[in-house]
Amino acid sequence: MNSSKLLQLAIPLVKSHGFTREALAQSVLHLPKPHREPLPDLSVTALFGRGDDARRTLVNAWLEDARFRMKEDTSGSTSMRRVLHSRLKLNEPVLAHLPEAFALLSTSSSVLPVDPLPLLKHTALVADQACWIIEPHAQEMSWYTRRASISAMYLAAELHQLTSPNTAESFLDYLLQNSGAAEKAVQEVALFGFYTFKSWKGIAKSSGVL
Description:
Number of strands: 0
Distance between the termini: 36 Å
Mean pLDDT: 84
Largest sheet: none
Shape: globular
Radius of gyration: 18 Å
Number of helices: 12
Helix content: over 70%
Order of helices and strands: HHHHHHHHHHHH
């Protein structure tokens, strides 16, 4: 059974099922020749990982798909604002599930109770994609510097979106238009623990971290 194909079929199910093992189990019902029953839990484990690792596999697949769709939606654009707005819009159908998804990524380390690196990697990849769409032939140093700035601003806007979705785009515009935006972005990112604390606490307890 092709796990990559099942992941692609599970991505649209996130809207209704969240980033869950159930979404992965239900994926086989959407094959060209659908199964009669969802995957048994043992099969979900064999294909995607144990426990919450399977859910993290789905989170990462959804993030990768969103980056691909971001490229499709804005290819040839010369507006960073348009590119980043399009990426924020991709969050909207699953916004209710994103705090828990980010908490899952942040509790994936066997060493640290909360590890920010997976989220920082996520936003760095979004920034990579955005900069490539805007300036595919940019010089390496200027691209690297801009990517760091875009990554911080996008992360701030995305975290803002979790609690204030109606103002996320205007907040992103503010960051893009103001010279002091980097400092504001850092302050906003510092609120990450507050945004995801409840989800993280539940996940940490269920996995035995706390």
